[in-house]
Amino acid sequence: MPPLQFWKPGAAAPGSSLDRESEAEGSLLPVAAAKNAHLSIDAQRQRLPIYKHREKLLWCVEKYKVVIVVGQTGCGKSTQIPQYLHEAGWTSQNHVVACTQPRRVAATSVATRVAEEVGSVLGDEVGYTIRFEDLSSPTRTKIKYMTDGMLFRETMMDPLLSKYSVIMIDEAHERGAYTDLLLGLVKKIMRKRPELRVIISSATIDAEDFLEYFNTNADGTDRAQDDAVIVSLEGRMFPVEVCYLKEPCADYAEAAVQTVFDIHMKEPPGDVLVFLTGREEIDQVIQQVSDRLQSLPSAAPKLLPLPLYATLPPEEQELIFDPPPRDTRKVIFSTNIAEASVTIDGIKYVVDCGFVKLKTFNPRTCMDVLTITPCSLASANQRAGRAGRTSAGKCFRLYPSSILPTHNPRSPMPITTPPELVRSDISLYLLQLKALGIDNVAKFDFMSPPPSEMMIRALEFLYCLKAIDDEGRLTRPMGERMAEVPLDPMMAAILLNSHAFRCGEEILTIAAMTSVQNVFITAEGGTKATMAELERRKFTAEEGDHLTLLNAYNAFARYGTKDKQWCGNHRINFKAVSRAASIRKQLKKYLDRFEIPVVSCEGDAVRLRKCLVSGYFKNAARMLPDGTYRSAREGAILHVHPSSVMFTRQPSTGWVIYHEVIETTKSFMRDLTVVDEDWLVELAPHFYTFKGGGLKKHL
DNA sequence: GAGCACTGC
Description:
CATH topology of the largest domain: Rossmann fold
Distance between the termini: 59 Å
Shape: globular
Keywords: ATP-binding, Helicase, Hydrolase, mRNA processing, mRNA splicing, Nucleotide-binding
Radius of gyration: 27 Å
Domain Helicase C-terminal: 256-437
GO molecular function, one term: RNA helicase activity
Number of strands: 24
Largest sheet: 8 strands, mixed
Number of domains: 4
Mean pLDDT: 87
Low-confidence stretches: 10-35
Pfam family, one: OB_NTP_bind
EC number: 3.6.4.13
Strand content: 15-25%
Helix content: 25-40%
Structural class: alpha/beta
């Protein structure tokens, strides 16, 4: 295959804002950590590029209610801005500065760093709050890092978030569901608390969107009336040269392999990060790379290909951080996990296929669709930036520059990724908003309002679960409690119904186990996969996946809580099930507080399965003679997901309920339990009746 | 007979 032709933009590259940003920072050289080692913490802090903007930032926070801060990763905004505010007195009179993060690791690691810089014991002056871990003091903590979901939850206790003087929403451009909910809430709170200050940290690309959303000076003729402002910070990134393919390629996986070998043969030493879309694709590409390595002369420079994706066992994930053997180039083939969640130092080259796997809820079919779609320009810029963390780098985009949305108004590439709230089932979020007293959710000031069809679907769901009444008001105590427990509405209903079926012990376990992913370890392909499957059979329940999860948890509780070896032998993911144990404990506390007695069903699986039907009833399907299923709700053809124990079985009653459907190549049901047709009518008469000998869904 | 990107309470 001839080498692929890349186009190298000149100094004045058209298009991508990334190119412009890199140019602007071309003269800015970061200070090596080693060189700084002798400096005091204060001196180190003053050397950060952001320090030059300290006074301006503080002035803006005084003058404007909302400050939108734009700066690349590594410029120190998450660690420094809360400290500047603390030093400037924003934490006096028992006030707290909050800084939210979209991920748990970010909240804990940034808090740890800042505690060191401030000279505080973690949990004292500087603390963090994430689920299951509260290292903060209600009286002494002045700077509090937390996940956005946690701050959202705090609004249930304190609707005005009155203890906070400044709330900084970090990584807002990622537009996670709780980030968007917080944006709306904070905007609402500001009307009642004019003294509250909000800082939004975002990427350059959407800063204007945030400004427009927050600025109440709508006509904009007199800028002096603005109450929101954008502040640009210099980053500490190195320049990244971006190259494009001259022509579109037919197969990006093939192009990725070719590009990796071109880099390997022609470019100076440095590790490579390749962005692809999924596990299967990554395993295949690595196989191709390994095959081609065989044909290379033995004297050729060495190359070490490594996979990276979320379901990779932890010990294999660790390998990407190890330095490669001498004279070997490390090449990491990764999913989107390396875009923001996992940071690898020493990457000099990025290869970007330009695609991402994205989950989108279809309200018409009530299914999640998982599709490979062009990534946004914002994503592409973030990916490219991964090449410039420790030295100047180079990014190879496996598409022509002509498809960029900045060049082509009809580009398939969006400028930003659609926010999570507009492509999810929002019933949980609407329920939580109602719990905050926002009854008319359609009037809530979403930065990007979810499509009305999604709203209607979600409200219908909540009504048939009895969480809201026919006027859309939260029911008491059912709806109120459902909003409070950290579960999706269906499972919340099941848990709260469990006392009626006398099976709380078991439902607690099932709710916890369905809340974590990848309970069972499945190795890729061949005999290993069969082995994992065989091990799982030990826990297999004929009644389906929920009872299988229950069996696995009970075995773990008896033998595996402290025994990683036992878990490995039984192909159980130790971390996942340990987390399920924490979740179970937390859920139990909620039931205790609601004074819902928790008893065991003593092996009576019928009670247990009926209880599951009391929440899952709308997700019912009947098996057809050809082995596929037809959904009771929409009459859609469904398939059993290969990870289900029902993949190799047939339901004795002909009926199943399921947790969710994901559409990939087909529509797959996940987490199934065998049920009786009669139970559907018995437990959800408002949803189903018998007509002419068959089950009919009410319209 | 065939497979899930990633977060969060």
